[in-house]
Amino acid sequence: MSCARDLHFLHSAPCAPAGRCRRTQAPAPATQTIRKHALRSRRGGSGPHPAQTGRLCKSHSVSKNVAAAACVGAKNLHTARPWLQKTGTAEVSSILEEKILGADTSAALEETGRVLSIGDGIARVYGLRNVQAEEMVEFSSGLKGMSLNLEPDNVGVVVFGNDKLIKEGDIVKRTGAIVDVPVGEELLGRVVDALGNAIDGKGPLGSKQRRRVGLKAPGIIPRISVREPMQTGIKAVDSLVPIGRGQRELIIGDRQTGKTAIAIDTIINQKRFNDGTEEKKKLYCIYVAIGQKRSTVAQLVKRLTDADAMKYTIVVSATASDAAPLQYLAPYSGCSMGEYFRDNGKHALIIYDDLSKQAVAYRQMSLLLRRPPGREAYPGDVFYLHSRLLERAAKMNDNFGGGSLTALPVIETQAGDVSAYIPTNVISITDGQIFLETELFYKGIRPAINVGLSVSRVGSAAQTRAMKQVAGTMKLELAQYREVAAFAQFGSDLDAATQQLLNRGVRLTELLKQGQYSPMAIEEQVAVIYAGVRGHLDKMDPSKITKFEKAFLQHVISQQTDLLAAIRTDGKISEASDAKLKEVVLNFLASFE
Predict the structure, then answer these.
(1) Residue-by-residue DSSP string for 125-169
(2) How do the pLDDT tens digits run along the chain, 593 residues long?
(3) DSSP label at 182?
(4) CA atoms of 451 and 461, how far apart (whole Å)
(5) How far is CA 347 from CA 130, 215, 270, 342, 402, in A?
């Protein structure tokens, strides 16, 4: 502000009639006040900045001092109005006085600190006395970080990015905001990082809403028991370990056993519901990739795009090359995006692939922050790390919109050891697990689900009645088959009942095999499983089961559309449908052989 100059202009009177310019003197109080304050501001303006580390910085520039001086001068001018009226400038002075008195002279206050040390993605910052836990802070280089350790003499900050851009002594300032991410339907079809920034090269997201990443899980009152099916399109899952909307079902197994394949098939299977117009049946998907290779994530996005599934999917990526804090944050960011749909009465599915790598990233951060290690060097709160994340998956009651968030966390085991620390933690948090075995995978049984160790604690309440009718006895038959198969290796003489059990078990195992990226509708699964559990395939050579299934499905889809529609709409197999299905199976078997 150049208030002093404007006032000087105001004091200059018009030229004298004789052609000589004469200067009119303003009343002494106003002139002396302005000069005195201007002189004081010149003396103080060239000194050092008053801000000190760890204290509130009060930035009073020269222009601010002049502004304050001008305000005092304006008040004195108010008393000198009679003199101004004589000079004919009353109107100008009134406007000027109004502008000066309305000027904002408040100091801009920012709480800052300085970097004491930086290394391994952890910054120790002196100052920031009022910073909150998990608050976003900004370094002078533009990098963002999150305060995690609040200690008496310093703050431990994890850096979201390359710490080589930060030097000792750099200024760090508070943002006053807890870490949040953009949410909304604008994110569908996009690939974002853990902070919600677009990384797919398709331009800005366009989302206007933001949501904190660390929100509290819903309480007991807003929830309701799981009752709607979340269909994966995989026969072995939908029949033996059914999943409901709002459930948390763990997918656990060694590396390269098909864990991600189950998750991707589940996303692709939702296309049949999302292409419809009924909002209550739609299921929006969020896939969180933690610690994976960039090439793997790129292949996954391409697969979803080819299947036309990206239009209802958000991919959150924190790859192996990203900083550990971003790998730690990514699941919470994805969960906040899913909660937007849940809290707006819609249904969402979130896949965490995988939480083992998130735990490793959190262990790295905790050890570097000097937190005491516990079992397997994980910090003491690693259980809370996963429980506070997975508890946010819920089925809400009608008073809270009736939406749901279903979670499919993935855990990678080492040599099939499910008794390790992280696997046991997550098994105890979730509502069941799908256990994949390397041995079954190499035998050609894919998906390689171990039916004996896999369980769904709440999903059976959500299973469709038609599937219950055909698959109700299948799990028991498969369990008995595995028990008898172990003894059958040692003895050749088996009674007829045992032989029958072995024959049925072999054929049911063959029937549950399924190719990757080929999910099936629930009514198609019912028709195929019906043929197996009712004994119609007991005399067929096991090697022909897969061929029979493919041909039978084509026949039913093309010739028996009314039967499939009846099963789909009724949700059960009526007496008429049962008789019709039996007739179709027998007629097809006669022509097939």
Answers:
(1) EEE-TTPPTTEEEEETTS-EEEEEEE-SS-EEEEESS-GGG--TT
(2) 444 444 444 444 444 444 444 444 444 444 454 454 444 544 444 444 434 444 444 444 444 554 555 555 555 545 545 544 555 567 778 887 777 777 766 666 889 999 999 999 999 999 999 999 999 999 999 999 999 999 999 999 999 999 999 999 999 999 999 999 999 999 999 999 999 999 999 999 989 999 999 999 999 999 999 999 999 999 999 999 999 999 999 999 999 999 999 999 999 999 999 999 899 999 999 999 999 999 999 999 999 999 999 999 999 999 999 999 999 999 999 999 999 999 999 999 999 999 999 999 999 999 999 999 999 999 999 999 999 999 999 999 999 999 999 999 999 999 999 999 999 999 999 999 999 999 999 999 999 999 989 999 998 899 999 999 999 889 889 988 988 888 787 766 788 888 889 999 999 999 999 999 999 999 999 999 999 999 899 989 999 999 999 999 999 999 999 999 999 999 999 999 999 999 999 999 998 86
(3) E
(4) 19
(5) 39, 18, 11, 6, 9
Report angle CA 396, 398, 401 to the nearest 5 degrees.
70
**H-only helix segments in 212-282:** 235-240, 259-269, 271-274
The values of phi and psi at residue 144, to 5°, are -105, 155
- Tell me how far apart the alpha carbons of residues 390 and 517 are, in angstroms, rounded to a whole number: 27
Residue type, 60: H
Q: Which two tokens stand for residue 560?
A: 């028996």
Burial 442-476 (b: 16+ CB within 10 A, else e): eeebbbbbbbeebbbebbbebbbebbebbbeebbe
pTM, 2 dp:
0.82
Alpha carbons 432 and 251: distance in angstroms, whole number: 9
C-alpha distances in Å from residue 266, one per residue of 306, 318, 516:
15, 21, 11
Look up residue 580 and give its amino acid.
Answer: K
Active site residues: 457
SS3 518: coil
Radius of gyration of the chain (CA): 35
User: Could you identify the residue written with the tokens 């120790």?
Assistant: 124
Give the span between the Cα atoms of 31 and 27, in whole angstroms: 7
Torsion of CA 125, 128, 132, 138, to 10 degrees: -70
- The separation between the first and the last C-alpha atoms of the chain, rounded to the nearest angstrom, is 96
